[in-house]
Amino acid sequence: MKFNLPKLAISLLLPLFVGYLGSLFTISQIQTWYSQINKPSLLPPNGIFGPVWTALYILMGVAFYFIWTEKIGKKQKDADRSWAIKIYLIQLALNLLWSIIFFKFHLLTLAVAEILVLWVMIFFTIIEFRKIKAVTMWLLIPYLAWVTFATYLTAAVWWLN
Question: How far is CA 126 from the centre of its chain?
Fold first, then answer.
């Protein structure tokens, strides 16, 4: 595989930009609304979330770069790549949407439903990416694991409030 710096930059910057946009809805609420609601006992310190999400966005970007630049010869494989990219972009949009629903609008019930859909879309992204390049599965499993934990946290906040 030939290294493509512009595609790598775009692949990394896209999820990092989504994370940045999500943080715009999150940061302003940490010391206000979020500090006043009931939270589960397994909630990590606030300072953990930024570094973890940054690492996950980088892993997502690397996985996307592999999918985008993988040499594919058959038409069916091109269709597979196109479908995988669409699912990836949908889950990325859902990732941002969760921050808006939870932190901006404080819609906890909807946030629980939305994060469940996000989890499913991440799972499908892993399946579709794996069909094209197996290593991408291992790059995305930490993301799925973290969103599994985030699903617990979201549901627990909903339940406690």
Answer: 12
CA distance 156 to 158: 5
pLDDT (tens digit per residue) in 11-53 = 999 999 999 999 999 999 999 999 999 999 999 999 999 999 9
CA 70 to the chain's CA centroid: 22
Token pair, residue 152, equals 């617990």
- Classify 35 as helix, strand or coil: helix
CA atoms of 101 and 97, how far apart (whole Å) = 6
> Per the structure block, which two tokens stand in for 153?
């946290």
- Angstrom distance (rounded) from CA 42 to CA 74: 48
Q: At what angle are helices 46-69 and 108-132 packed, to 10 degrees?
A: 30
Residue 43 per-residue DSSP state? P
Sequence-distant (6+) residues with CB within 8 A of 151 are 112, 115, 116, 119
Q: Domains for the chain: give ranges and CATH numbers.
A: 5-160 (1.20.1260.100)
